[in-house]
Amino acid sequence: MPARRFVVIGLGNFGTSVAEALYKDGHDVIAVDTDEDRVDAVAAHVSRAAVVDARQRDALEQAGAGEADVAIISTGDDITASMLATLALLDLGVEELYAIVVSRDHGRIVEHMGVQETIFPERESAFNLSSRLSDHAIVDYVRMAGGLSVQEMVVPAAWQGQTLRDLSLRDRFAITVVAVHDTETDALAAPPDPDQTLAATDTLLVAGRGQRLREAKEIGEDT
Questions:
Q1: Which portions of the chain are predicted below pLDDT 50?
Q2: Are residues 125 and 142 in the same domain?
Q3: DSSP H or E stretch at residue 119
């Protein structure tokens, strides 16, 4: 997947973890916070880090936030800062916004403002979020012990029109398709029929080692 440009607003534990994981995945990451110590701590692990008051549009623009493809707003309990940062990022033209929220009302407010998705940190890990944002083909991601992962992913273009038997994913990549979800009809086949033809509207629930899952998806996209 091509690298994307992210801006992470707020460098608490969640924001820092997301910023570092996205940078490690090869993306351009701008990380900002009002706390100089937090900025210094993450500086070596992101593309750019700056002490910025994200409530100020001009300050965000000077930090390069307007160039971002995606913004993650993680200001903790400061709901006012979350709202003002959201407004500033929208003014700067950032089209894809994710907000870490602390309450249902907080989530409703920023969603009405234009945030695409709200995340409750107690429900989704920073690693899970960074994995989803790194790759639009991954709908959901759960990392398990021993290097195993379970992902829901869209069907790559090269796999569409083929059956699971044709693809031989278990033999080629040691990964297992647990279920096939037709997002158009909401039908779920679990376990899936190996002779079912995969369509663009399908997603696959697959299990295997993270590296092998990435290899399978990349080959599917490149074929």
A1: 137-145
A2: no
A3: strand 117-119
